[in-house]
Specification:
This protein is an all-alpha fold. It has 8 helices and no strands. α4 runs antiparallel to α5 and α4 runs antiparallel to α8 (about 200-224). The longest helix is centred in the C-terminal third of the chain and has 33 residues, at about 155-190. The protein is elongated and about 65 Å long. The termini are far apart.
C-alpha cells in the first residue's frame, strides 16, 4: 500500500510551463550567452598564453596614453572613460527592465533609449581609439610599440588587440541594433498588448553580458 501511495504521488512534467520557472526565450538566451562566454574565454586564454610565452610585452600605460585633444600623458584615461560609459549603460538597462516589470511603457522607453546612447558613445570612443592607433602605425600585422625592456615587440600585441576589442565592439554594435528594435516595439505598444516586457529583460541579459566581458578585456589587456 505504501509503495502504491508513493507511485500515485509521483508526477512528471507534461510540457507547457517550464518546471524551472524560466521561459523558453530566456533559457535560450542563457544558452547563447554561455556559448559566447566560451568564445571570449578562448580569446583571452590564447592572449595570455601568447603573452607569457614571450620575454616581454609593450607597456599599456604608454600605448594607451592619448585621448581626444590630448596627444599623450594621460595613461588609460580615455579607456577608463569608455569603461565608465559602458557600466552606466548597464545601469540604465537595469532601470529599463525594472520599468518593464511594472508595465511602465514610458519609463522602459526612456531608459532603453539612454542605453542605446551609451552604446553609441562607447562605439564612437572605440572608433576614435582604433583610428588613433592606426595613424600611429598599429594594425593587424604591424606593431610600432616597443616592449617594456626596449626590444622590438611581436605583432601578437596588435593582432590580439584589434581582434579581441573588435569582436567585443561587434557585440556592442549588435546590442545597439537589437535595442533599437526593442525600443521601436515598446513605442508601438507591442509589449503592452502581449501583457509583459520579457523581451526587454532578454536583451538586458545580453547587454549585461557584453558589459561584463568588457571588464575582463579592460583588465587583461589595458591594465596588466
Amino acid at each position: 500500500m505504501a509503495t502504491a501511495a508513493v507511485a500515485n504521488e509521483q508526477t512528471w512534467w507534461s510540457g507547457g510551463k517550464s518546471p524551472y520557472n524560466v521561459s523558453y526565450g530566456k533559457l535560450m538566451m542563457w544558452f547563447f550567452l554561455m556559448s559566447d562566454a566560451f568564445t571570449f574565454g578562448a580569446f583571452l586564454i590564447s592572449l595570455w598564453t601568447t603573452r607569457f610565452s614571450l620575454s616581454s610585452w609593450p607597456d599599456p600605460n604608454k600605448v594607451f596614453s592619448s585621448a581626444p585633444f590630448i596627444e599623450s600623458g594621460a595613461p588609460l584615461v580615455f579607456v577608463s572613460l569608455m569603461t565608465f560609459i559602458l557600466i552606466m549603460s548597464s545601469v540604465t538597462m537595469v532601470l529599463a527592465v525594472n520599468a518593464g516589470h511594472h508595465m511602465d511603457k514610458n519609463g522602459a522607453a526612456k531608459w532603453l533609449f539612454l542605453t542605446i546612447i551609451g552604446g553609441l558613445c562607447f562605439l564612437g570612443c572605440q572608433a576614435w581609439e582604433w583610428n588613433h592607433l592606426f595613424h600611429e602605425g598599429a594594425w593587424w600585422g604591424r606593431n610600432p610599440f616597443p616592449n617594456r625592456d626596449g626590444t622590438v615587440a611581436s605583432t601578437a600585441f596588435t593582432n590580439y588587440f584589434f581582434t579581441v576589442t573588435g569582436f567585443h565592439g561587434f557585440h556592442v554594435f549588435s546590442g545597439v541594433v537589437i535595442n533599437c528594435v526593442i525600443l521601436t516595439n515598446i513605442l508601438k505598444g507591442t509589449y503592452d498588448r502581449r501583457g509583459h516586457y520579457e523581451m526587454v529583460e532578454k536583451v538586458g541579459l545580453y547587454w549585461h553580458f557584453v558589459d561584463l566581458v568588457w571588464v575582463f578585456v579592460f583588465t587583461c589587456y589595458y591594465l596588466l
